[in-house]
Amino acid sequence: MGTLPSKRDLRIDLFRGLALVVIYIDHIPYNRFSHLTLRNFGFTSAADIFVLLAGISFALAYAPRLDTRGIGPVTGMVGRRIVTIYAAHILVLLAALMLLVVVNRNAPLDLFVASPATWVDYSLPHAAAMSLVLQFQPPYFDILPLYLVLLAFALPLLFMARSHWGLALSASAALWLVAAVYGLNFPSVRSIEGWYFDPLSWQIVFATGLCIGLASLGGGSIWKSRWLSALCILVIAVSFVLVFPCRHLGTDSSHCYLGSFSQFGGLVDRQTPWRFVNTLAWVYLIIRYVPRDARWLTRPAAQALTRMGRNSLAVFSIGTLLSLAARLALPGPDHSWLAQIAIFVTGTAVMALTAYLLDNVPRNMPLIPTRAKSV
């Protein structure tokens, strides 16, 4: 197994930072900027890219340390990372609940549930208690629980991938297939169908990213093929034809094919073959046509995104709370372009400032978290 590259791959952090900005935009309802994000042009969303990059980052962060430090210390490192992310999820969720209580005392959880179920108790104490066992996952606050589960299975997956990447991907594909056929999922009070981001389905994206990361550590390079590039472009084009008319012309349009196509797999929440292949097509084209040493990666705008990706846990947490604040500030569809631009610019600036401070504040200061290595 190879050693950790001496120079950090800025592409990973940059596209992870870009995914965080897109997630922030997509989490604000009635936002015209959300019509320009990736999910409107195909099956892939920013969450897909983020999870795949998380798998790559995990391999780059922990695989070399297995050789130099051994399984015990690495297991402890992953365990501490899980605890950190769990604590961040609980704190962000409780902060959001408190914000809703202050702003809307009569119905503090209205913006947390899209279609409230009559059999669920949505009182604040009950929601707080269920949050501790990850069963209360409001819309837009459900990505970190997914990553917690993925991290719990990441080390066994890494061992399999180190033995043979085909073994790891075969086990991952088998788990995905069983979950899809039998409808397996984790319990949730939000829906009787379980978690919106079903870890048993989404783990195949993380596993694929992990294998890509291991391949790069071993000195492997992407297979450069014009035919494969053309195939990836075709996949993206087909997904565009199926999705774009539905997003912009409405699901009742005669040009919308997504409704009938989705009968072959839930395209909204589960990680389906169409969504997975679409994500791989984007990632292949990015890896092939964006050089690792591209000069524009060191320019100020790119550096801002790179810092955000490098400090993704803190930036994601701040962005989630900012998106909730934006929904409270602009609860309906009738607001001006000026208000939407202000929210976009302000939120992105706060996220970028958070990343800048985390990169530049001395690490030995109290209450300053250690920089994220694998999220």
What does this entry look like structurally?
The structure is a single chain. This protein is mainly α. The protein has one domain (10-360). The chain is built from 14 helices and no strands. α3 (71-103) packs antiparallel against α5 (143-152) and α3 (71-103) packs parallel to α13. The chain is globular and about 55 Å long. The chain starts with 9 loop residues before the first helix and ends in a 15-residue tail after the last helix. Mean pLDDT is 82; it is low at 1-6, 114-120, 262-268 and 365-375.
Uncertain runs are: 1-6, 114-120, 262-268, 365-375
Q: Sheet with the most strands?
A: none
**Count of DSSP-assigned helices:** 14
How much of the polypeptide forms β-strand, as a percent range? under 5%
Termini separation comes to 23 Å
- Fraction of residues in H or I helices: 55-70%
Name the shape in a single word.
globular
The tally of structural domains comes to: 1
Which structural class fits the helix and strand makeup? mainly alpha
Rg measurement, Å: 21 Å
Mean pLDDT: 82
Tell me how many strands there are. Answer: 0
Order of helices and strands: HHHHHHHHHHHHHH
